[in-house]
Amino acid sequence: MTCQEVVEYMNRYLDGDLDELERQELMEHLRRCPDDQELFERLQRLSGELGELPKVTPPFSLVDSILPQLDEIDAHREAKAFALQAAETAETGASGGQPARRPAAGRFSRRARIWTGSAAAAAAAAIILILAPWGSGPDSPLGHSNTVADTGGEAASMMSASEESAPASADRTEGAASGGSEAGAEPKQQIVDGQTVPTSTTPPDSETRSVAPRMEQNQRTQGPESPSVSAGGGQGSTVYPSPGGGAAREFAKTPQGIMNFAGPSPGVVSDIMGSADMGFAAVPEVTYSPDRAYSYSISQGWIVIQNAAGGKVFDHTFEGVVSHPVWSDDSRYLSVTVTATDGTAKPYRIDAENGALVE
Amino acid sequence: MVEPGLIRAAQQGDRDALVSLLRDIENHVYRTAYYILGNEQDALDASQEALIRIYTKINSYEEKAQFKTWIQRIVTNICIDKFRRTKPVVSIEEHDMVFREKQDVEEEVLSAYAAKDIREAIDKLPDHHRAVVVLRYLQDFSYNEIADSLDLPLNTVKSYLFRARQQLQTLLHDYQKGGVRG
Prior knowledge:
heterodimer, A: alpha+beta, four-stranded antiparallel sheet, 8 strands, B: Arc Repressor Mutant, subunit A, elongated
């Protein structure tokens, strides 16, 4: 037996991998070779010690500690499925020939990007308000979900879903970016188009009148039956998916987004407002790298980076809250600050290309 | 370790089954992370991330593989790819001098290595060697199961394990002979 063979036999012996003949060969060799005998004894001792290493257990239930994140994941999934469905319906409905709607497949997507970063009009927030109760109707596949975590998730996923759906056009970009008025006007018009049943209740607040009753109406006509956009509201509702994400963000940021709709439909609004603090904290921000190759979503300590195809390239949960995301100019790195529960802030850099933390 | 029926239920969308499954495996996940990463905090972070990934990827598990090797693949990947790469190795504990006091008494010296000495020695191994040792001794995996978990050829697993033992044996032997602690 060569020296190498002996060492291999020793190791295989420790792993119970020697047959009887091999074992006898090894023992025979060791009897004649004190050095190997000593090595063998040390390896045996080591193996015994390794086998007795403490079977450590976590100091607390790991599953309990991640349950909130698991809930959030579920909400995201449901919302995404919903948003995709809505987006598909929107594309189908887009051939209906409404003048306000551009036929190009790329429209929605570019707009979604713009909405992400630009000031959204109040009407856009209305869409979310409409969407929220409608998505959580009793027979909706989303199940019963009055929590804003779900609502927010819908909005966020809608953005990414519509984002995935297509490219865009420049004129639309400028139009929407230059001010909320045009961006807001279109959806509002669509909502009017989508009105199938005249509302009998006249809200006291004239400012809210134009949108809120329709919200209730949409609930009635679309909510219970089906989540499909075209099912109840007619063609008009096909605009929903596009600006949803931006609207959600603005809704979260601007109080007047809520104020405008508070009058006529207190029940719905209070549901949303009541949980706004918690819920909109869970609305992930989605922002694109300068070259649009990647987008990130941040929710508390959870950060996900997706590539343009929607594939996840990075998924990590920090102990703390992630803030101040900044893309590097070359779109490769995303720098963030993580503030731990004890208040200490620490910078991290994520290599989006390799899906790894680099510092 | 996990009932096949539970896995199937989880894959069919039974959330309670999935959460229950995670509870069944959390200690195994944590143990691997703890010994690969060498400290509790990173082990907790990595284990939580692994459990979340298992939760989201449960449908990508196929029954042709063993479930336990599938989860160990997930946790070892997270430990090696993310945590190990970005964080400097942190020494687990202060070294105490017990062996040096005994070093002239060969019999006693050879009687036992302290668990923390072994952990420190494990921590000095290259990542994949360490992972092989952890799966072999903390998860009681066979060569084949280790190969499946780490996506390594069988012969590579053996080679890593044998070399790791050799290195550990040398490190611990050196400690005894006079505290060469790198």
